[in-house]
Specification:
The protein has 164 residues and is an alpha+beta fold. The protein has 2 helices and 13 strands. The protein is 16% helix and 40% strand.
């Protein structure tokens, strides 16, 4: 009986600790978040420096009622100077956007990207009313996606996605 009580206390403590450090993982258990698959078909370069394991794919809306074709760049773990840590490239509408909600709507745990229901929405960077009104200079060619995002020092970060 003591072992069962100890095990229950250990599980509760582990869940509380996990929620404190990675709340999105607990939300996954309740269906409030989903996991996104890593997209290995693209190579990401930012200002001519290569980055791995930060390109993800989203092919349907969170409620699974609509299909779409999004590439999501998770830049939070990279050492780049930008206010935009999550970039959404809508390949169908040819739009570059950013996630504008809580920083807890996206989190990467052991290489898996968790996205909350609110994290599935984005605002176009070029939108003057809701976004920063930044000209991304988006170019989409057969095997290459090329655009810019603003950085913290009033510069532009050059993002290049190339199909492998």
């Amino acid at each position: 009986m003591k072992k069962i009580i100890f095990l229950v206390i250990l599980i509760i403590f582990s869940l509380i600790t996990l929620y404190y450090y990675k709340p999105v993982t607990i939300d996954y258990l309740f269906g409030i978040t989903r996991t996104l698959k890593q997209e290995n078909g693209y190579q990401l370069n930012i200002n001519n420096k290569r980055y791995d394991n930060c390109v993800f794919k989203s092919t349907e809306s969170f409620d699974k009622k609509r299909k779409h074709n999004f590439v999501i760049l998770y830049l939070r773990d990279l050492n780049i100077k930008s206010d935009f840590e999550i970039i959404v490239v809508n390949l169908d509408d040819k739009v570059v956007g950013y996630f504008c909600g809580s920083d807890k709507c996206y989190d990467k745990v052991f290489g898996t990207l968790f996205q909350s229901d609110m994290g599935s929405f984005y605002t176009p960077l070029e939108d003057d009313a809701k976004g920063p009104g930044f000209d991304t200079k988006l170019k989409m060619e057969n095997e290459k996606i090329d655009f810019y995002i603003p950085s913290e020092r009033n510069e532009s970060l050059h993002i290049q996605l190339s199909k492998k």
